[in-house]
């Protein structure tokens, strides 16, 4: 039987972090180890696949940029059409892992599994979670049932769809959950036990890959603002002056907005800026017309898409040339 061929792309993060002592779990230098060091720490990976490694860039994921996303997406798109690669694993910092996963899922064809993983503890820590996460990510990626899965987040023995994966704790090893959903799979004895078949979950998620025969050189500017007590609407004009083509607002409650913010966003919308109304609440959707008259102001309700993911989604929708109604339909389909 031929062995699966896996491409490992290392991009930094805590999984590649080095601390001064084995007890240091929060103070360390992230992105210190390359792909080869990561696989050297997990000899059992050799039982799973033939692995080639690349380190396209190495950073703490709080430094993630759309330029890094476009670089990574271009490499993943190549891998997906490369007959010598069966699946892809990406190691990544956990801070923006869920956003990178969604970006890749939206921009890349879903024919092969692309599993993103990271770690909450640096590689040098007692009880480091990176080696097990890396092994589980590889096992998941090469599993035949993962074909057609698109991008999946694997953390702490659970596989999450990129639409629902959310980091909800700053330090615990079980930092990730599936927001308003259950994990796609549990990893048990190195095998995925699917709760939602991967290909079915992928088919339910919108894809923008067909809009991008080639990737854009850069993404349109979209700003993310927060509704808060005493929120100053002047910031909305400032965003427009900086060239924002879209604004996402993390509203209170059901995406609710104060009158000054609502009015200023309505004016931005009248000028052609696409405005998405999301919520700062940790769970639940923002439904069209609920708590704000979206038709009157021209706003797009984010549905189940979180503010941070709404920002990247809106930027991609604008890059793809979709208008407000088409963008509304994509948000509503998550
Ligand atoms: N700040 C780190 C990063 O996102 C945290 C981590 O990887 O867990 O790169």
Give the SSE string. Answer: EHEHEHEHEEEEEEHEHEHEHEHH
The geometry reads as globular
End-to-end Cα distance: 39 Å
Structural class: alpha/beta
**Spans of at least 5 consecutive residues with low confidence:** none
What does this structure look like?
The structure is a single chain. The protein has 334 residues and is an alpha/beta fold. The chain contains 10 helices and 14 strands. It folds into 2 domains: 205 residues, L-asparaginase, N-terminal domain (Rossmann fold), CATH 3.40.50; 112 residues, Rossmann fold (3-Layer(aba) Sandwich), CATH 3.40.50. It has an 8-stranded mixed β-sheet, sandwiched between helices. Strand 12, helix 7 and strand 13 form a beta-alpha-beta unit. Helix 2 crosses helix 3 and helix 6 runs parallel beside helix 7. The structure holds aspartic acid.
Topology:
Blueprint: E1 5-10, H1 35-40, E2 50-54, H2 66-81, E3 87-91, H3 97-107, E4 114-117, H4 130-142, E5 151-155, E6 158-160, E7 165-167, E8 176-178, E9 185-188, E10 191-194, H5 198-204, E11 222-226, H6 234-241, E12 246-251, H7 259-270, E13 274-279, H8 294-297, E14 300-301, H9 307-319, H10 324-332
Parallel strand pairs: 1-2, 1-3, 3-4, 4-5, 11-12, 12-13, 13-14
Antiparallel strand pairs: 5-6, 6-9, 7-8, 9-10
Helix pairs in contact: 2-3, 3-9, 6-7
The protein binds aspartic acid.
């Amino acid at each position: 039987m031929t062995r699966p061929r896996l491409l490992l792309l290392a991009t930094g993060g805590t999984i590649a972090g080095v601390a001064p002592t084995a007890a240091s779990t929060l103070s360390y230098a992230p992105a210190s180890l390359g792909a080869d060091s990561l696989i050297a720490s997990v000899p059992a990976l050799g039982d799973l696949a033939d692995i080639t490694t690349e380190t396209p860039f190495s950073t703490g994921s709080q430094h993630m940029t759309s330029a890094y996303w476009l670089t990574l997406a271009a490499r993943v798109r190549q891998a997906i059409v490369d007959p010598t690669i069966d699946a892809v694993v990406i190691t990544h910092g956990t801070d923006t892992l869920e956003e990178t996963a969604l970006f890749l899922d939206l921009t890349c064809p879903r024919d092969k599994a692309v599993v993103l993983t990271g770690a909450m503890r640096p590689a040098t820590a007692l009880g480091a979670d990176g080696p097990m996460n890396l092994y589980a990510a590889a096992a998941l990626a090469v599993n035949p049932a993962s074909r057609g899965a698109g991008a999946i987040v694997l953390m702490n023995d659970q596989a999450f769809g990129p639409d629902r994966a959310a980091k909800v704790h700053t330090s615990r090893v079980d930092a990730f959950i599936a927001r308003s959903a259950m994990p796609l799979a549990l990893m048990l004895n190195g095998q995925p036990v699917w709760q939602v078949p991967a290909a079915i979950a992928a088919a339910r998620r919108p894809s923008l890959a067909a809009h991008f025969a080639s990737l854009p050189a850069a993404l349109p500017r979209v700003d993310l603002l927060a509704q808060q007590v005493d929120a100053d609407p002047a910031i909305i004009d400032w965003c427009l002056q900086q060239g924002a083509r879209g604004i996402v607002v993390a509203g209170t409650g059901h995406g609710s907005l104060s009158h000054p913010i609502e009015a200023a966003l309505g004016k931005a919308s009248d000028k052609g800026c696409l405005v998405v109304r999301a919520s700062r609440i940790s769970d639940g959707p923002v439904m069209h017309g609920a708590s704000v008259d979206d038709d009157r102001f021209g706003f797009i309700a984010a549905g189940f898409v979180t503010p941070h993911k709404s920002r990247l989604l809106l930027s991609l929708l604008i890059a793809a040339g979709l208008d407000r109604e088409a963008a509304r339909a994509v948000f509503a389909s998550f």
